[in-house]
Amino acid sequence: MVDDTSHPSPATSAGGHHHEPRVTVTAQYDHPSAARDAAAALLGAGFGSGDVTVVASASDEVLRAQRQADPTVIERGEVPPVNGAVLGFVAGMLGFGLLGLLMGSGLIDMFGKEQAQAVGPFWAAVIGGGVFGLAFALAGFIFNSPLPHPEPPEHVGGKPDARTFVSVHTNTEQEAAASTALQRFEPSSLKVWHGSNGDWLPQNHTA
Asked: What is the domain count for the chain?
C-alpha cells in the first residue's frame, strides 16, 4: 500500500504556510565616510534604522592620528609635553610657594624652617615656588614626551585598518534595492545571505 500523504517542504511550516527567507546584505567599504553615505542611502530608500547596522573599525579622528603617528617612538603622554610642563610648573609654584610662605612665617615646623624664616615669608615663597615649579615643569615635560623605541622597527606598519561594514536586514523583495543602494558607493565587497530554518547561506560575493 502506497502512502499518498504529502510531506511539507523544508520552506513550508507544519500549517502549510511558506516562510520567506530572511535576507542580510553586507557591504565592506575602505573608508568610514563611504560607509556613512551608504547607510544614509539605505535609510533614504525606506529601510528602517533598526535594520541598518554600521560596524566601523575606527573613526576619522583615530585614522588621522594613526597616519600622523611616528612608528619609531612610543607615545605615552596623557597631554602634550608643553601642556604637561605648564601644569607641572603651576602645581609646583602654587604648592611649594604656599609651603614656603607658611614656613617663612613660622606656621609650619619642618626641616628648613630656620632658613625660610631667615629670608622671610615672601622670599621663602618665591624661592620655594620658583625652584619646585621648574622641577615639576621639567618632570611634566619628560613624563609626557614620547620615548624612542630601543630598536626602531625594520618594517613600518602598513595603512591603518579603515574598513567599515554596512549591513541591512530585509526580505527577498527588497534585496535588489538594498544591493543597489550599497553598490552606489563602490564597496570593496558585497555579500548577500539568506536565512531559513536557522541556516544562513551565502548567495553571492561581489568584489
From this structure: 2
